[in-house]
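#onboarding

Welcome to the new folks! Below is a worked example of what a typical request in this channel looks like: someone posts a single protein sequence, and someone else replies with the predicted structure as tokens. Don't worry about understanding the tokens yet, we'll cover that in week two.

Example request:
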Amino acid sequence: MNETGFTQVDNKIFDAQSFITPIAFGVLMRMVRMIVGYGNDDTALSNTFLQKMCNMSKNTVSKAVGELVEFGFLNQDAQQRKTAIYTLNYENIAAFDAKKHGQNLASQNLASQNMTIRFPKYDPVVSQNMGSIKENINKTSLNKTIETGEVKKTDVKKLSPAKQERELLVNSLFDKWIELSGQKIKPSKKRLSHINARLDDDFTEQQIIDAMTYVATDIWHVANGQNLIEIAIRSTEQLEKKLIKVASQQTQSPASRTRSTPDPLAVNAKYDVPTEMTDEEKRAWFAGGTDSTMPSDTTSDNDNSHYYG
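Example response:
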């Protein structure tokens, strides 16, 4: 076998291998080769040279050298704008005792390694179980809240007595409309706001009920699909119109109804026909007129552009 030369390495260096990082040990071997291998006491080595010979980046080489200096096996004489000079600290290498100092050095090395963040592998079974545990905890907390009657203050909508009373009145009037019309409609915010607005306009509860009763039960409104709550209370003007109709009905008896002064709110001003009249009474009503068709109730009642579901 042809000998190409060799480099003697102190056994203490190999004993210390388990107490330094693999990168630092690799740089240390290169230092031994460049110093001991060439029979030198020291040597000047540039960072670029170490990067190439150790196959490491600049930052990695710098960290490895710093680790060896701190460990006590390497001395570095770094001067500004000059190549650093390295020597092996033979005194510390010779004094190194793995059994005596191993526990302390190993603890320090382990502490530095523990700084690395490690993410556990994803386990779908464990993750599903964790989700079930959280769900059970939430259900248990909810059941406990229900049993104890504890409610967070932020979950309770606090209203003043006056607002509570108004809210009850608005809902009561809407329920009255359902009773009168027999319709299955929802108490939407828009509909409830109409009722609340009419109360703000100083209409009484009974006035609103009278107007709703007229629209819900009037023959013409029912026959033409105009028996809608919006027809009765969507505006101040509309509610006033319905109250006029109600007052007209109350002041006239069926036996004494005669043609009255034309209603300026009617589509055909020649007619103000009470809508609760029977068919025979209506024929008698029109006997003296030239027209033979029943007029519409009001202009606004025939306008469907503002209605919604």
